[in-house]
Design a protein that fits this description.
- The protein is built from 10 helices and 6 strands, in the order E-H-H-E-H-E-E-E-E-H-H-H-H-H-H-H.
- By secondary structure, the protein is α/β, with parallel strands linked by helices.
Length: 280
């Protein structure tokens, strides 16, 4: 992606080096990676898993301390806020075309632990969106984890951010609230509804890619393939196999690799929000 020199978003907050007041050391990246994979596979809250691994290190609220950034971390942060800006421009134009306003989400770039309207979370959670405060939370260390999961490249990283912004769109349009109501009415199929929501966010990420490319003409050869590889690498079935488990479709929370590729590609090929109705 030809992203350098593009506009950066100002809707950004930073919380570097956050850690728990008690319990001392942060988990190593290897442990975080294992917790992340188990979370994807089982659908369990990564924090609960971390409590099992790390004992009592999460007994009190996180405190933020300033930590120096390496050149590589700074570049990743610059990349993230540039991608966020591109989502702002793409969705603002699209919402305007449809006769409404686009309320921009904020992004919080953090390391260690972070307090949100959805509770306390850590780097092990991976990127996530919190409807309660309308913020996308991102630890850039996840991008290195993404490479280890078989999804390198800047467009793969951009897809992850655009996916979380897709959850913001679901929040402001009411889709997320409707899905939660469906889960309450039909708890036995709660995970299936979660899959539908995640696949729609994948489709929205694809729509962003199409709209943003028209505005910026910044995609390069191989970028689309990077995004599709990322979608394949974080499919529930692939994560389960990589964790040495049998594939259990009943435990899926995000969708299979095939499903994630399909909906991301559909969004990219159509550039049309109305084509992303995964709930049909």
């Amino acid at each position: 992606m030809r992203w350098k020199g593009q506009r950066k978003s100002t809707n950004v907050e930073y919380s570097r080096g956050g850690r728990m007041a008690r319990g001392g050391a942060k988990m190593g990246i290897g442990t975080i990676a294992v917790v992340l994979i188990i979370s994807f596979v089982t659908g369990k809250n990564p924090l609960s898993l971390m409590q099992m691994v790390g004992g009592s290190q999460q007994r009190s609220a996180p405190q933020t301390v300033n930590a120096p950034r390496s050149a590589a971390e700074k570049e990743l942060e610059d990349f993230a806020v540039t991608i966020l800006a591109s989502t702002e421009d793409a969705w603002q134009a699209e919402f305007k075309r449809r006769g409404s306003n686009y309320p921009k989400p904020r992004m919080k770039i953090f390391s260690g632990n972070v307090s949100t309207a959805c509770g306390v979370n850590s780097e092990a959670t991976g990127p996530f969106y919190c409807p309660g405060d309308q913020k996308v939370y991102l630890a850039v260390s996840f991008f290195n984890q993404l490479k280890r999961m078989g999804a390198p490249g800047d467009f793969a990283q951009a897809y992850v951010i655009a996916h979380e912004v897709g959850h913001h769109i679901q929040n402001v349009t009411g889709t997320e609230k409707k899905m939660r109501a469906m889960q309450q009415r039909d708890p036995r199929n709660a995970k299936k509804y979660s899959v539908m929501l995640e696949l729609q966010a994948d489709c929205y990420a694809g729509v962003w890619a199409a709209l943003s490319e028209k505005q910026r003409n910044w995609l390069e050869s191989g970028d689309v393939e990077e995004g599709l590889q990322a979608a394949a690498s974080i499919g529930d079935d692939t994560l389960q196999r990589n964790a040495g488990r049998r594939v259990d479709t009943e435990s899926f929370t995000h969708g299979s690799s095939e499903q994630r590729i399909y909906w991301l590609r559909k969004g990219m090929s159509t550039g049309d929000l109305s084509q992303c109705d995964t709930f049909k």
